[in-house]
């Protein structure tokens, strides 16, 4: 099976062109094996680029633990790059089907190479039951679970819950460190208030237009970037008054530009990079 290794701001996946390769019989098991950084290719997960009846392509994404996710903002930018540069859809505006629905993308192309992609990530979902979370809505923020307490094993933290087609739990902190991500992130992901688990973002506000973020991703652990998480952080910052609706999010793997626009859609702009191609012979 031929594959391509790509990353968006360091959030790396193994991509398989299912226009040409047969769809894997057990994609969850393949994701676990191929993502292993010692015995496999090494990645945050597996992305299948498939045919679609309603868009230029369909993206299916599996985390490193084999669980299928609804959406990944960094991965979809790389799918757009792949479609354009391989001639599958040679246009600078594309439509890609995801578990979130069909998303629109605008490609920044120079000399036939896609360097950055702007993604219309759709409207954020704030109603707790739809995130989903059983945390209550805060009356001060309408129907959103914003600035609400989340009890963990040894502490209580204040969080804001947002869905960008997948669940996010955002926690603003004074200073980012490993403890927040590696110890608290794991507890947040599996907390009983999140029936489908959740991604956990820890955010240090630098200014009204700029934040630092680290993320514990559902099914993958800490990753260098999370596009949907950066979008959720922008929304959470704006509704709680910590940031504006346009922010630069500094992640371990690079920067993403996020804009929660007047049309209530969140737009994300960031890089897409191809690393190498190979052949997976299985184990």
Compile the SSE list and pairings.
Blueprint: E1 2-8, E2 11-17, H1 27-35, E3 45-50, E4 57-63, E5 68-69, H2 73-85, E6 93-98, E7 101-110, E8 113-120, E9 148-151, E10 156-163, E11 167-172, H3 178-189, E12 199-207, E13 210-217, E14 221-223, H4 227-239, E15 246-251, E16 254-260, E17 266-271, E18 273-279
Parallel strand pairs: 2-3, 4-6, 11-12, 13-15
Antiparallel strand pairs: 1-2, 1-18, 3-4, 4-5, 6-7, 7-8, 8-17, 9-10, 10-11, 12-13, 13-14, 15-16, 16-17
Name the CATH superfamily assignment of the largest domain. Answer: Diaminopimelate Epimerase, Chain A, domain 1
Helix content: 10-25%
CATH class placement of the largest domain: Alpha Beta
Give the N-terminus to C-terminus distance in angstroms. Answer: 12 Å
For the record, the CATH architecture of the largest domain stands as Roll
Mind telling me the C-alpha Rg? 18 Å
Sheet having the most strands: 18 strands, mixed
Strand residue content: 35-45%
Detail the poorly predicted runs.
none
Which H/E pattern describes the elements? EEHEEEHEEEEEEHEEEHEEEE
- E-strand count: 18
Secondary structural class = alpha+beta
CATH topology of the largest domain: Diaminopimelate Epimerase, Chain A, domain 1
Number of helices: 4
Number of domains: 2
Oligomeric organization of the protein chains: single chain
Average the pLDDT over all residues and give the rounded result: 97
């Amino acid at each position: 099976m031929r594959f391509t290794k790509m990353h968006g701001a360091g959030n790396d996946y193994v991509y398989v062109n299912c226009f040409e390769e047969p769809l894997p019989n057990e994609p969850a098991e393949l994701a676990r094996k191929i993502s292993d950084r010692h015995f496999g290719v090494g990645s945050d997960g597996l992305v299948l680029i498939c045919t679609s009846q309603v868009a230029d392509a369909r993206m299916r994404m599996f985390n490193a633990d084999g669980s299928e996710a609804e959406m990944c903002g960094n991965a979809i930018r790389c799918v757009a790059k792949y479609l354009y540069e391989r001639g599958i859809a040679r246009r600078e505006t594309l439509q890609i089907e995801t578990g979130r629905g069909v998303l629109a993308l605008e490609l920044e192309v120079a000399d036939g190479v896609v360097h950055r992609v702007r993604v219309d990530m759709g409207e954020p979902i704030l109603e707790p039951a739809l995130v989903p979370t059983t945390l209550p809505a805060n009356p001060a923020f309408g129907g959103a679970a914003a600035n609400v307490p989340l009890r963990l094993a040894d502490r209580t933290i204040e969080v804001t819950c947002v869905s960008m087609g997948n669940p996010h739990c955002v926690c603003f902190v004074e200073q980012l460190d490993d403890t927040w991500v590696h110890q608290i992130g794991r507890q947040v992901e599996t907390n009983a208030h999140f029936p489908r688990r959740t991604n956990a973002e820890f955010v240090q506000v630098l200014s009204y237009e700029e934040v630092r973020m680290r993320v514990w991703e559902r099914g993958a652990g800490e990753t260098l970037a999370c596009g949907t998480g950066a979008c959720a952080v922008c929304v959470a910052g704006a509704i709680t008054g910590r940031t504006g609706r346009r922010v630069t999010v500094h992640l371990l793997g690079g920067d993403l530009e996020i804009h929660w626009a007047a049309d209530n859609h969140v737009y994300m702009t960031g890089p897409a990079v191809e690393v190498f191609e190979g052949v997976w012979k299985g184990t």
